[in-house]
Amino acid sequence: MTFPDEPLRLPLTAIPDGCQDWTTVRAARWSAALPPRWTFLRVRRSVAAGLATLVLCVGALVAMAGGLWPFVAAGFAVYVLWVLARPELVWAGAPLLLLALAVEASSKSWALTAFGVLVVLGSWAVVAVRLRARSEQLDRAVAAAGGVAVPVPGAGAPVRRGRVLFALGFVVLALGALTGGTAGLWGSTEDQQGAWVVTVFLAGLGITALASAWLGRQRAGALRGVPVPVLRVLVRDDAQGGTEVYAADDPAAERPLFTVDLASFDEDDEEEEEDGEEDSDGDDSLQRVLLGLDDDTFGPVREAVLYGAPFDGAEVLVVSADEDPEQPPLTEWSEGPVRPLSPDAGRRRAARQREQAADSLQLELQGRELAEQQAAVSKVRHWRAGWLDWVATAFLVQWGLWLSWAWFGDSGLSSWKLALIPLLGLYGAVRVPQKLAWRITADRSGLWVAGLRGPRHVPWDDLRFVRRRSLELKIDWRGGDWTVSAPRWDRLQRRWGLTHPYDALAAELTAMRLDPELRPIGESGVAERGRAVWPVAAVLAGAWVVALVAWS
Length: 552
Fold this sequence. Notes:
Layout: E1 20-21, H1 24-32, H2 45-64, H3 70-85, H4 90-104, H5 110-144, E2 149-150, H6 163-181, H7 189-225, E3 228-237, E4 243-246, E5 258-260, E6 262-264, H8 267-274, H9 280-293, E7 302-307, E8 317-320, E9 330-334, E10 339-340, H10 343-377, E11 381-384, H11 387-408, H12 415-437, E12 439-443, E13 446-449, E14 456-459, E15 463-469, E16 472-477, E17 480-485, H13 490-496, H14 501-514, H15 534-551
Parallel strand pairs: 1-3
Antiparallel strand pairs: 2-3, 3-4, 3-7, 4-5, 5-10, 6-9, 7-8, 8-9, 11-12, 12-13, 13-14, 15-16, 16-17
Helix pairs in contact: 1-5, 2-3, 2-7, 3-4, 3-7, 4-5, 6-7, 10-14, 11-12, 12-15
């Protein structure tokens, strides 16, 4: 999809009187107030979750060995998550952890206790620097608005912020209570210690979700209560479903200032939902949104008005031009906190986006060229699992066998491991044949995607998209989808000029989907479409059960 060079215009009627442009110069002053990078200003959610999980695993092992109190082991994992993703909660978490370390100090080595205290105090100080910088960001954003403040549109609408997090928090707390209530039923003392670590960790995650929901709801409510500063900006939807905000005089989108997750809200839609009315247009809009989240492309640059002074963790409202010029402006509330980008980080992000766009264009051209070549020589096209799929499967099997062997080697096999080993083998028995025997056939009628129960037919008109993201290749159509994954390393591929097989497949199928002249002209036979792999899965599952019985 191509977009105009000029930003999509916002109607003048949607711009409040006296609203100032947030120019590059003013935005640079705001960026200068951001805290240093070592304050964990912007850590990826996946990195924060990964580090918290790593700390949890290490703490659980130490606790199971009797070297740490479960509250401290799980508390440090939750605390790491707070430092990286929810710094407001550190003011409560740090004193609790210090108190727990003091209570446990008499039964543990002084070196371990001192290390824990240093980590807590050091991270506490880092968070203090980050939170203190927020007031300066707020002041500079207000100054950039030039004293202009207006009520937000739809201020009387109900606050929906935090609903999902509230529900999630209570569910996780219930899981934690269930785990704690059954901790005494686990086999060995070590397993019971591990169960208590999981219990405390789940309780911490539940509290985190509830606190995040409450903070977001409070800030969203405060945004509606009084007139707020307004600024003219530019916005663009990124490939992950978020929104990037740029200075008003940065039409080339060279330097994003911050990102924020936005959600539209319409009072009329809310009333219809309460009355129990169904609207097919609403279903279509939701489907377009969901498909947009699966798209790797970026949206066009659009003019917008930003309501609310932005700072690290702030809630805002954005009124922006719709991608369809015939539609009214979009009014979107933040459904996540503002996440600033330092100047260097913003430029690196923009450079990566340009690089990805260039790669996508090159793949699109290669896919079309390949489809044209194959259309001249092949009446039917086939794709099947290759060496990368075999490598991925080998790692999967090796990991499962190693884990099962390690568990069976334990002197006292706990009940949960005894139940998990058969399930692990059955999962592998189903997954391995699908990864090794996947097959896609394209003919004049559409695609034939071979799976567990046999090939499924996907007419060309029902095909929505074929794309590769991260390790996964996904084919989506009306009524279903199909995925397969394999290793990849973008930097090495780019350095050596290699094209990942999934990228080539996705590019060629996309070219066929968009241009009927590139589609195969032949009709595939039954044997060409692949066979059901469930018989192989059944044989592997039976062999696994027999092996377990013989082993035990």
